[in-house]
Amino acid sequence: MPGRRRIGSGGREPARRGARAARSCRRRLRAGDRPDRRRARRRCVPARTDRGASGRAGPRHRRVRDRDPPPLAPRGRSRADRHRRPRRRARDDARGPGVLVGVLDVTVLGDVVGRSSVVVCCGSGGVGKTTTAAAIGLEAARGGRRVVVVTIDPARRLADALGLRDGLSGEPQQLPVDVGDGEMWAMMLDAPAMFERVVRANAADPDQADRIVANAFYRNMATALSGTQEYMASEALYELHTDERFDLVVVDTPPSRNAIEFLEAPGVLTRFLDHKAFKLMMLPTRTGLKVFGAATQPMLRLIGKVVGSDVLGDAVAFFQTFAGMEVGFRERADAVATLLRATGTEFVLVTSPQRDALVEAAWFADQLSERGYGVATTVVNRVHPRFGDGSVADARKRADAAADSGRAELAATWANLAALREVAERERAEVEALLGHTGAPVVDVPLLPTDVHDLDSLDHLGRYLFAVG
């Protein structure tokens, strides 16, 4: 079954060369140099290699062109199912639970969903990332998957996209949608509740867990400490991935820079557990409180003046109670890091044709590449359609001809069409110039007349995301 090849030292260097080429191209674009499609491909995309930045064999870059959406598939059957071989049952193997084997899709996103156990949707804010994640989940459920869509972003966008007036909770809830044999679930991350579950799972006994949860330092860390939300998101991902109710987890991440913290969270925790400061705070639990004797009293008094004696006392009490749990936390962090790099985990980059969003998406793709990840698919939302197969020059010529013959309204129509085609061509040229180096296929979603606010409009979006052809 196709999957993402692990990017080692041999696959990472071409990706870095591509990232440097893209950064050079972006500097020229900011300076006002707007390359046409041919020039963008020649100057801004590295030479063709056997594998793209994602490490997957195939063409450097291909685009799924916009088209009228295909008709809706029958309920309980994915649109791509009409063009695939018979599906085998999901099975557990080295890739993790729920990976589908023997699926042949002819859609770009259908292929990604068919081979994945985790799909991470990432990109800048306001580009349709949440609705894309929800549409992927709905289509996968129609294909027979047991899907849970989890949003890390504390905003209500996922609930709004699903048409849930009462919002989402921190526990998975099954949605009342007709998807045949599949199931669709959704939840919103509740970081404090997730933190408490992790504590109780790793505590030696309920009494140890109760003392930690009651500690003031813990409560502050669970609700206000920077990075806690992202680390708890990675814990939630692992918990859902190992939950036998689901065979696919779709993650709606926060905006790009916070998404990087989500990817780095397991490593940050591991480094913290190895840090000298943590080991110092754990010393009283291993050698007795006498370690805080005369030699350390001046340091403790100084720290107490800065952070307050109560805070210091709570911190010391927390680490004393935490003793023995660091092994479990480290093992979970290592397991999450392994899951994020597993064959069945795929990254879908979501953006829009706006310049700022494209620059942010290119930056995020570079960050993924530098960390050894790859982009499986790029979704560009709100793209202007081409309005036919003609060129900008052709529309302008027709506008001039209509004006010369005195048909002012027809001339204005053709002039307007020429302007719209020019916008569409410029958008596509900039997408290729800034994102072509990723080697990922691009799915265009046209500018829709309404926002996605319920399952019907979500299904309409899915008709473009999973269009066959």
Write a structural description.
The chain is an alpha/beta fold and 469 residues long. Helices cover 51% and strands 11% of the residues. It is built from 18 helices and 11 strands.
**Uncertain residue ranges:** 1-19, 28-106, 285-295, 302-309
Examine the secondary-structure arrangement and name the CATH architecture of the domain at 73-273 and 329-383 and 445-465.
3-Layer(aba) Sandwich
Helix content: 40-55%
Q: End-to-end span in angstroms?
A: 21 Å
Number of strands: 11
Question: What is the H/E string?
Answer: HHEEEHEHEHEEHHHHEHHHHHEHEHHEH
Q: What is the secondary structure topology, with strand pairs?
A:
Blueprint: H1 9-30, H2 37-44, E1 63-64, E2 91-93, E3 96-99, H3 108-115, E4 118-122, H4 129-142, E5 146-151, H5 157-161, E6 173-174, E7 183-188, H6 191-202, H7 206-214, H8 216-224, H9 228-241, E8 248-252, H10 256-274, H11 276-287, H12 297-307, H13 309-322, H14 326-340, E9 345-351, H15 355-370, E10 377-383, H16 392-404, H17 408-435, E11 442-446, H18 455-465
Parallel strand pairs: 1-11, 4-8, 4-9, 5-7, 5-8, 9-10, 10-11
Antiparallel strand pairs: 2-3, 6-7
